[in-house]
Amino acid sequence: MLSIFLIEVGNKVITVTNVSLRYGGRKLFDDVNLKFTPSNCYGVIGANGAGKSTFLKILSGEIEPNTGEVSILTGVRVSVLKQDHFQYDENQVMETVIMGNQRLYEIMKEKEAIYSKPDMTDEDGIKASELECEFAELNGWEAESEASTLLQGLGIGTDLHERKLSELIGSEKVKVLLAQALFGKPGVLILDEPTNHLDIKSINWLEEFLIEFEGTVIVVSHDRHFLNKVCTHMADVDFGKIKLYVGNYDFWYESSQLAQQMMKDQNKKKEEKIKQLQEFIARFSANASKSRQATSRKKLLDKINLDDIQPSNRRYPFVGFKPEREVGNEILRVEGLTKYIDGEKILDNVSFTVGKGDKIAFVGENEIVYTTLFKILMGEMEPDSGSYKWGITITKAYFPKDNSEFFNDVDLSLVDWMRQFSEEKSESYLRGFLGRMLFSGEEALKEAKVLSGGERVRCMLSRMMLSSANFLILDQPTNHLDLEAITAVNNGLRDYKSNIMFTSHDHQLIETVANRIIEITPTDMFDRRMTYDEYLELVNA
Questions:
Q1: The pLDDT of residue 41
Q2: Are 39 and 296 in contact (CB under 8 A)?
Q3: What is the percentage of the chain residues whose pLDDT exceeds 70?
Q4: pLDDT for position 295
Q5: Contact 292, 211 (CB under 8 A)
Q6: What ranges make up the beta strands (E) of 488-539?
Q7: How many helices (H) and strands (E) does the chain have?
Q8: What is the DSSP letter of 86?
Q9: Which pLDDT does position 239 carry in this prediction?
Q10: Is 404 in the same domain as 485?
Q11: Mean per-residue pLDDT over the chain, rounded
């Protein structure tokens, strides 16, 4: 039985007791017992469909469990990131943020109604006085200032604060709803994918906000860099159970890998294993920054013992690319590429040369630019002017952002789907590649056209591995994937011994894979051999 390891800090803000939930005949959770404490951030992780978002809804009271209960400390306000981007369309931006503290907003409206009366009664005066006291207790006089600070931190300028939400674009609405959740110093923050649609600056601001946040944070995210930066604990949803572990995502992942290694090394003495564990913990503790969150995490890590490190039950796909031949001296030369789409200039005189060992991340907010560039380089689109030349030794494998043409209306099993792209046609050979992507047994006979988004991505990656190409082009390869598959893709690209060009929203993937950064803007082109973090430090200086 896997034990829960949790250091108690102060009061238990949320206590989960014997919670179970079933949908039809499917068990999501069974007999879950957890305690969430102040000044900690809990990252909820698990495979797609494991029930992470459902668990957050149970904690917030949106869904009732079949058995058990969730107890929240009396007087603690719980704030939840709303997912309906149209719910507040008729409200002003500033007003929407303040509505994050519903009681404060109600008081403001009640005061407004009383003071707008032409003739106030004595009862109105008494009521107004009571409301003013409660308003002050809730920091009402600072409400607009706090809301404005939150909005500006997330990139919503003051020129938008009095507009209706219906006038904002989708990404701006997301930021307003996030500001709403953060508003008013709640005791508990429940955030489901808070970094979705945020730009790098907004994500960095949110990370710092949560690191300094004194309440309890419970968050679901597929952004490993974000989880590593803010989390003190991981809540692992697996096989109908939810277990708490000290540390961020990387610590959880690497400790589970270490535990599996220890299980294989049964002949090793316990003293050797303890030394290995101590070295492992010391390495992570040494990397802790000076932030309050990291310091808190370090104290917890120092108290872990051998029995607290447990192997994960999670299954990881295997992503590995092996080039059939080494690239020559001439790899790729791009000169003056220009492309218009529907009258808009997408590429403007783009030029660069790829050298041996280059793993290039294309970064920036305009994704159409890079999708267009990749399609031109793969021969799927013609430039309006300019040219490109591939070296004669180069073999290419391409991962498109939109893979629908490969699956829609395709009446093939996965084995037959893979057979289209393989010189070796035997079923055992093809099943080997599918098995690495967790399509084993009957799963390999599923129809390609009924696959989920994540399953399609895994098939496209298998197709790339079959090619043995020495140049990979990937356009957002982690979209639709769970953390396990994202980690596998990251490891595969990191270990690949040849050239890569790719785009991604995954900070950790870019930082650990790329050694060269290119950003194409309407007026300029940034191109330098450096890491992603070095690039961010440069542009944010």
A1: 95
A2: yes
A3: 95
A4: 66
A5: yes
A6: 499-503, 516-520, 525-528
A7: 18, 18
A8: T
A9: 74
A10: yes
A11: 90
Whether 213 shows a pLDDT value over 50: the answer reads: yes
CA distance 525 to 36: 47
Would you state the structure tokens that stand for residue 321, as one six-digit string?
């690319």
Question: Which of 276, 308, 340 marks a domain boundary?
Answer: 308
Residues 311-351: tens digit of each pLDDT: 777 788 999 999 999 999 999 999 999 999 999 999 999 99
Q: Is residue 162 assigned to a domain? A: no
Structural domain that includes position 360: 332-412+449-539
Q: Quick check: is 432 in a domain?
A: no
Same-domain status, 279 and 231: yes
Confidence (pLDDT) at 287: 60
CATH number of the domain where residue 533 is located: 3.40.50.300
The answer to whether 148 and 142 are in contact (CB under 8 A) is no
Q: Measured in Å, how far apart are the chain's first and last C-alpha atoms?
A: 50
Enter the tokens of residue 296: 């808190």
**Together in a domain, 295 and 261:** yes
Fill in the DSSP letter of residue 267: T
Average pLDDT over residues 404-414: 93
Q: What is the pLDDT of residue 288?
A: 54
Q: Rounded to two decimals, what is the model's pTM?
A: 0.86
Which residue type does 148 have? S
* C-alpha–C-alpha distance, residues 448 and 72, integer Å: 46
> Residue 36 corresponds to which amino acid?
F
Packed helices 249-264 and 270-286: angle between N→C axes, nearest 10 degrees: 160
Give residues with Cβ within 8 angstroms of 145, minimum separation 6.
none
Structural domains counted in the chain: 2
Average pLDDT over residues 100-118: 91
Phi, psi of 488 (to 5 degrees): -65, -40
CA 167 – CA 91 distance, rounded (Å): 10
Q: Other CB atoms closer than 10 Å to residue 215's CB: what's the count?
A: 19
Residues 336 and 399 in one domain: yes
Closest Cα partner for 256 from 5, 432, 508? 5
Write the single-letter amino acid at 276. Answer: Q
Kindly state whether residues 346 and 457 are assigned to the same domain.
yes
User: Encoding tokens for residue 157?
Assistant: 């300028």
Q: Give me 212's structure tokens.
A: 């300094």
Question: What are 541's two structure tokens?
Answer: 């200086």
Considering the domain architecture, whether residues 361 and 509 belong to the same structural domain is answered as yes
Buried/exposed 94-129: b ≥16 CB within 10 Å, e otherwise: bbbbbbbbeebbebbebbeebeeeeeeeeeeeeebe
- Residue 313 domain-assigned (yes or no): no
pLDDT digits (tens, 9 = 90+) for 9-35: 346 899 999 999 988 778 888 999 999
- Kindly state whether residue 181 falls inside one of the protein's structural domains: no
